[in-house]
């Protein structure tokens, strides 16, 4: 897997996996990667195999199937972690689903999810909640209250029902944020505040 690296001398390593709609170079990915480097981490952002093809052809394409994504990431982590540097895995949406499958194999100290796709939009009956059970590492999920992937979950929370996550997970809602942690167009000035709120939560969780 092709990857880019920041702060190679960091005391711990964050491997930050991108989502399906955008690669590792979006404004969102750039911001949170930089925040990780500020915390003293080496930050590694790989290209999933399909994104390598997007770079080569300039044409958008759908993500690879999960086994392909997981195998490619597994191979990269096997290479990176030969130095046994303390590892934190962080993922945006699809990237978070991939990292869950590998966190325990590589003894991740923490896992951080930026927008988990709990339910595909318009398919509330299909849940990915059980995927959170794939790791025993301490986990943080940051989720926008306008995220279409978590509408059923938020509805239960608003009705006072307990949202039960595995014991090693905590969930923090970002008020007014969508799947990319952006505010509405009318409140666009709030987007940087939401990103900073998420960055502060990551800092508190890691430290």
Would you mind describing this structure in some detail?
The chain has 207 residues and is of the alpha/beta class. 32% of the residues lie in helices and 19% in strands. The chain has one domain (3-206): Rossmann fold (3-Layer(aba) Sandwich). It has 6 helices and 7 strands; from the N terminus they run E-E-H-E-H-H-E-H-E-E-H-E-H.
Summary keywords:
single chain; 207 residues; alpha/beta; Rossmann fold; seven-stranded mixed β-sheet; 6 helices; 19% strand; globular
Total strands? 7
Strand order of the largest sheet: 1-3-2-4-5-6-7
- Radius of gyration, CA atoms, in whole angstroms: 16 Å
Provide the succession of SSEs. Answer: EEHEHHEHEEHEH
User: Can you tell me the residue ranges where pLDDT is under 50 for at least 5 consecutive residues?
Assistant: none
Q: What's the CATH C level? A: Alpha Beta
CATH homologous superfamily annotation? Alpha/Beta hydrolase fold, catalytic domain
Work out the helicity level: 25-40%
Distance between the termini: 29 Å
Number of individual domains: 1
- The CATH topology name reads Rossmann fold
What's the mean pLDDT score? 95
Structural class: alpha/beta
Assign the CATH architecture.
Answer: 3-Layer(aba) Sandwich
Number of helices: 6
Main beta sheet, described?
7 strands, mixed
| Apparent shape | globular
What percentage of the residues does DSSP assign to strands (E)? Answer: 15-25%
């Amino acid at each position: 897997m092709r990857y880019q690296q920041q702060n190679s001398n960091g005391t711990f390593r964050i491997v930050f996996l991108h989502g399906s709609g955008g690669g590792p170079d979006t404004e969102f990915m750039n911001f949170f990667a930089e925040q990780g480097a500020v915390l003293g981490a080496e930050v590694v952002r790989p290209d999933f195999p399909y994104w390598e093809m997007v770079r080569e052809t300039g044409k958008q394409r759908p993500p690879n199937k999960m086994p392909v994504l997981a195998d490619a990431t597994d191979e990269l982590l096997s290479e990176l972690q030969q130095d046994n540097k303390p590892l934190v895995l962080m993922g945006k949406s699809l990237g978070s689903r991939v990292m869950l499958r590998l966190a325990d194999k590589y003894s991740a100290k923490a896992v951080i999810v930026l927008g988990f796709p709990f339910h595909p939009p318009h398919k509330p009956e299909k849940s990915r909640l059980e995927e959170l059970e794939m790791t025993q590492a301490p986990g943080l999920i940051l989720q926008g209250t306008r995220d279409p992937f978590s509408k059923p979950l938020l509805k239960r929370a608003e009705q006072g029902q307990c949202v039960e996550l595995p014991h090693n997970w905590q969930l923090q809602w970002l008020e007014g944020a969508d799947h990319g942690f952006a505010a509405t167009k009318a409140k666009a000035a709030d987007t940087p505040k939401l990103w900073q709120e998420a960055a502060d939560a990551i800092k508190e969780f890691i430290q």
